[in-house]
Amino acid sequence: MRSLMIALGMVPLSACMTTPSGHPGTGEPVMACNNEALEQFVGQPASQELGGRMLAASGARMIRWVPKGGVVTMDFRGDRLTIGLDDANRVETARCG
């Protein structure tokens, strides 16, 4: 009975494990984002069209727009582009992660 309780107690912990690919449980490889081409977009006004161009230039799969003073999680995603905006809604920073 004690062995059964110990085994059942470990089941929730297995849900927290990630696969070597970086995406929990999917086996899907993490697509790398490239920071090199992003500097050219600094100072441009934020728009859906600009976001599409930045995705194409970086190779990222998703964008996280962050307004001035916005709070974000510190989790790193190799397939995400994080764009920091200034008070005028222009690109202030752009980086992968």
Description:
The longest helix has 13 residues, at 2-14. A 3-stranded mixed beta sheet has the order 1-2-3, covered by helices on one side. It is globular and about 30 Å long. The chain has 2 helices and 3 strands. With 97 residues, the protein is an alpha+beta fold. The model is unreliable at 10-22 (pLDDT under 50). 25% of the residues lie in helices and 18% in strands. A hairpin with a 5-residue loop joins β2 and β3. The chain starts with a helix and ends with a strand.
Brief overview:
25% of the residues lie in helices and 18% in strands.
Cα-to-Cα separation, first versus last residue: 46 Å
Our Rg estimate from Cα atoms comes to 19 Å
- Strands in their spatial order, largest beta sheet: 1-2-3
How would a textbook summarize the main sheet?
Answer: 3 strands, mixed
The amount of helix comes to 10-25%
Globally, the shape reads globular
Q: Any low-confidence stretches, pLDDT <50, length ≥5?
A: 10-22
